């Protein structure tokens, strides 16, 4: 809610919310001692319906052949290149499609139990998340 990833609204007629699941991870130090617990909500992307929830799909990473062509062209044209690593790109991508998700168990808003989450930004495992 703090990241404005979704807003709570009534489910429009004819729409079906997609499912989700919680992912729990333990971050370990070198000596296998747990130093952090992480949790995230992941949409079950296989419940999305083509031409309703998404229209196009995208690759998570570029093909090595594409990277080699890009590097060769940059070298030929004497371009300056920079590398960046985006760790939270999936949580910052704005959605163009209307996707609805049930409220997460344990985080149901008081006096709004019948509402659903309309996703404003993409979540992990959405078909259009890599866009």
Care to describe what's here?
The chain has 131 residues and is mainly beta. The chain has a domain at 6-57 and 89-119. It is built from one helix and five strands. The longest helix is centred in the middle third of the chain and has 13 residues, at 64-76. The chain is extended, with a radius of gyration of 19 Å. The two termini are 22 Å apart. The relative contact order is 0.29. The mean pLDDT is 76.
Provide the fold topology.
Elements: E1 6-9, E2 20-28, E3 34-43, H1 64-76, E4 100-101, E5 116-119
Antiparallel strand pairs: 1-5, 2-3, 4-5
Number of strands: 5
**Termini separation (Å)?**
22 Å
Percentage of residues in strands = 15-25%
What is the radius of gyration? Answer: 19 Å
Order of helix and strand elements from N to C terminus? EEEHEE
Low-confidence stretches: none
- Structural class assignment: mainly beta
Q: Helical segment tally?
A: 1
The residue fraction in helices comes out at: under 10%
Average pLDDT rating: 76
Largest sheet composition:
3 strands, antiparallel
Q: What sort of overall outline do the alpha carbons produce when their principal axes are compared?
A: extended
The strands making up the biggest β-sheet line up spatially as: 1-5-4
Q: Main attributes?
A:
131 residues; 3-stranded antiparallel beta sheet; mainly beta; two-stranded antiparallel ribbon
Brief digest:
The chain is mostly beta strands and 131 residues long. It has one helix spanning 64-76; strands spanning 6-9, 20-28, 34-43, 100-101, 116-119.
